[in-house]
Amino acid sequence: MQDENERIADTLAARERRINAGRINKRLDDRLRDKHKEELAERLEAKAQHELAVARYAEYEFRRDPITDVPNEVKLPTDYLDDVQQKVEYNNFYADYYMQRYLDTNKQKYENLSYNVRNCHKSWFGDHYKQSGYFNVKRVFHCHNRWCWICTHLQQAKRLYEYTMLFEKLLKDYDLYHVVFTVRNVKGDALKETIDKMSDGLKKIIRYFQGRGKIAGIDFLQYGFVGAIRSFEIVINPTDYHPHMHCLFMLKKCLEFPRTEVNAFSFDHGVLKRTFSKFEVMLQKIFYLVMNGKKVTLENIQAVSRGYSCTMDYVEGTAWHEIFKYATKMSKDGAAICTYEQFKLLDDIFYRMKFLQCYGEFYNNKDDSAEEIDPYAEILFEKVLILLNSKEQPERDIAMALDKLVDEVHNKKLTVISKKLSYKYLKCIVESLREDSQVPDDWAPF
Fold this sequence. Notes:
With about 450 residues, the chain is α+β, with helices and mostly antiparallel strands. About 50% of the residues lie in helices and about 15% in strands.
């Protein structure tokens, strides 16, 4: 047995090891912070150098081929500004709900959220060319809240833009399939658990496609799985919720899934609506097993008489954009779609929840070039600024209220221009703002 001196020595040695480990971790943290600072400085320097190069080349191009008018390509359409103004008003419903949460809980964060949601996109910052009647938007106040109509669509547009280029490359060699997993409607107290089970169940199914999970007698590797993207959608009903997952699966080309099977999911109110492939039926049964915590074996799959709804459709053209639509159904006429009690439940569930998740080759593998603005567009915009600056010096970095901005645009007193919005996301944003789902809100497969 150790004597007292040995015990004390061991205790001190262990303490010294912990202290040294803490020092090492601190040094590592300091190094990481220094590394991040260096990387940030390098990125900022690279950005500054790029902007200087663009400006110099634009000056050369302006001398060689000057422009005399501001081209339409850099102007924000009036329709877009009208859409933003309309959608901003919808946010008041959710701002009121956040204020109510603040009054109920006395938690300051809810008052802050209420303020941010209510004022999202109401302040635009940029350079005002008074004499010429142009406003160059450089930034806009965003709330980045899941309930915000505008920020959600902007995020959707950003994802569309980022993945479009990546998909266009991969679709030369692979095919996309839109896969929808659905469960029965659930009450509010079971919604969070159901969503978690669905997410975990999909992870298990993807492991089979990747070959990291095995089912004796079934070869998932034959489908040539590349990657997948999953988006949650929750339809809010008066008394329950309808959660389902929209997924994009990228598989090898020219797979054949003949639809020869009829089951309970084939009918809608007694009318035959679709048939299924044997592969879809198998996915329905596997999804049922993983959702109910049962072992996935060939024997258990064959024993399931009716699984959970799963459809798998070949995606043509740009139909994959549907995966990036709203995660929750909201009203289109300005009325809040959910009650205050529903809002509280969903707001707590949404906290830190990932509505969109990537797997396989799509995980942290977006096309970085998608972040860049087309070089021609950048140079053209710089030429526009050279033209405007040659006529007058603008009021720099002023704030303009959205309502005033829209009024002056309609009264032909102001034209709004923006490099980022004009060239980077505008097409996707407009498409997103105006897109309506073709599936009726009351549709349910069960």
